[in-house]
Amino acid sequence: MLSRSVSKTLLSTTVRQSLKNKTNIHSSLKISSNVLGRRYISNVNVENNINGNYIRKQQTNYVNGNKLWLINNRRFASTVVKVPQMAESLTEGTLKEFTKNVGDFVHQDELIATIETDKIDVEVNAPFSGTIKKFLANPEDTVTVGGDLIEIEEGPAPEGNDAVKKESKPVKEKATEPVPEKKPAETVQKSESKPVSTPAQEKPKKQEAVQNVFEPKTFTSFSRNERKVKMNRMRMRIAERLKESQNTAASLTTFNEVDMSGILEMRKLYKDEIIKTKNVKFGFMGLFSKACTLAAKDIPSVNGAIEGDQIVYRDYSDISIAVATPKGLVTPVIRNAESLSVLEIEEEIVRLSKKARDGKLTLEDMSGGTFTISNGGVFGSLYGTPIINTPQTAVLGLHGVKQRPVTLADGTIASRPMMYLALTYDHRMLDGREAVTFLRTVKEYIEDPRKMLLA
Fold first, then answer.
1. Which one of 25, 93, 196, 446 is least enclosed by Cβ atoms within 10 Å?
2. Closest Cα to residue 319, out of 344, 90, 238, 254?
3. C-alpha distances in angstroms, 263 versus 48, 66, 259, 281, 282?
4. Which 3 state secondary structure label does DSSP give 82?
5. From the CB of residue 376, how many other CB atoms can be counted at a distance below 10 Å?
6. pTM above 0.70, yes or no
7. What is the CATH number of the domain that holds 261?
8. Residue 448 known to be catalytic
């Protein structure tokens, strides 16, 4: 009887001790507040291991095991990067290039691909850090928004020799790249080229590509070679819009000439001070833009547009500035130019022109616009008729400044720096009287810039 009582007491003590230790272990491992911790605790055999050392050992094992589980699952989790949303009016584009290779490690927000659209180049950045496993599209493919683009294995950068090898590989190529002698033109071309990640075996092709740049400049006698180059999407869109403009608008051009003596004298007096205070050059575009916004107040049809059977008149002027880029002509917009000073307009022109040359313009930078100014004079143009940037109503073309003999008001003849102006307008919207009046008003503001202060 005593034997049974003792056994029962010992069993009860063992059970209570087991429950107590299980509770302690549970509290210890629950620090992570993780589902893994709660699953792990149910498998701990506390009846045979009730000392504190074992508890600490199990806690250490769990923490290490949890880290390993996280690393393994992250390292082997591949995610497909989709073609990003570009804009409401853009649903597809042409895959221009991948900036990385399969097997390269990329950091979050690092550029991995470029997609060319009708208006802008869209940059695709890595949504997270990881290793590129597979390309799901090829360069020159047409890709749609939401389509598969790249498969990336999410995880940390490779460790050990592999990481050192990958990081040092581009440096090694650059350091050992042979520099051709007695070919300064090629050396300049290489130093200005944008570095890209390419395998070592591609170097001969890069050198050959640099040499090919100079081949068209040398011709063989009686040569009859031809070559075809596919139009990029921007050039195709420009062609479509220009033809659409000719087919839609009743285009007509009126001309005038302006004496640039006043502006040139003004630039001579203030250009150095403006560069010091505003860090911008005092050019023609700011003055012409301001003059157009003031003239549009008298002739609002210049700033309007036709929508169906209605005419839209605007009390603001968003001036589109034509900027030439290697891929074609783009027209970034200066918003509310009527509310900006001449120097503020110049600052906007500098900012937008730089973005255009760098290929960084966004769709918002080019959308809208109520009137366009195109300055062909920077390329030496003497005379020309610009094409309307539909759905706008008019475009002003500036040309080169040339010294020409001019008959002055007193009948004498003098040499003056003269510029031809050309205003192409939609005759459906503007009458000839309005177009001529607008251009003459711009001429008066430019010939005497002080009038702009009184307007």
1. 196
2. 344
3. 97, 74, 9, 13, 10
4. strand
5. 19
6. no
7. 3.30.559.10
8. no
In which region does residue 255 sit, left (phi positive, over 0), alpha (psi from -120 to 50) or beta (all else)? Answer: beta
- Annotated active-site residue in 141, 162, 431, 448: 431
Q: Is 315 a catalytic residue?
A: no
SS (H, E, C) 22-73: HHHHHHHHHHHCCHHHHHHHCCCCCCCCCCHHHHHHHHHHHHHHHHHHHHHH
Q: Are 251 and 387 in contact (CB under 8 A)?
A: yes
Whether residues 121 and 270 share a domain: the answer is no
The answer to whether residues 231 and 328 touch, using CB atoms and an 8 Å cutoff, is no
Supply the pLDDT for residue 230.
84
Residue tagged active-site, from 107, 162, 272, 427: 427
Q: Answer with the one of 108, 133, 154 that is the final residue of a domain.
A: 154
> In this structure, are 31 and 87 located in the same domain?
no
pLDDT (0 to 100) of residue 209:
44
**Structure tokens, 245:** 């403009």
Tell me which residue range forms the domain holding 35: 15-75
User: Which strand (E) or helix (H) includes residue 149?
Assistant: strand 148-154
Contacts of residue 269, Cβ cutoff 8 Å, sequence gap at least 6: none
Q: Of all helices (H) and strands (E), which one includes residue 449?
A: none
Domain total of the chain: 3
Phi/psi zone of residue 261: left (φ > 0), alpha (ψ -120 to 50 degrees), beta?
alpha
- What share of residues in the chain are helix, strand, coil (percent, to 5)? 45, 25, 35
User: DSSP assignment of 276-298, as one string?
Assistant: HHH-S---SHHHHHHHHHHHHHH
For tokens 């560069």, what's the residue?
Answer: 275
**Cα–Cα distance, 406 to 294 (Å, whole number):** 27
- The reply to whether omega before 170 is within 30° of 0 (cis) is no
Last residue of a domain, one of 154, 173, 205: 154
**Looking up tokens 């509770």, which residue turns up?**
23
* Pick from 42, 30, 21, 23: nearest CA to 66: 30
80, 148 in Cβ contact below 8 A? yes
Give 10-residue mean pLDDT values along the chain (455 residues): 46 50 51 44 47 53 48 60 77 86 90 83 87 89 88 79 42 43 44 41 43 55 88 83 91 96 92 87 92 96 93 94 83 95 93 87 87 93 92 95 93 95 96 96 95 83
C-alpha to C-alpha distance for 333 and 318, rounded to whole angstroms: 6
- The b-or-e profile of 277-306 (16+ CB within 10 A means b, else e) is eeebebbbbbbbbbbbbbbbeebebbbbbb
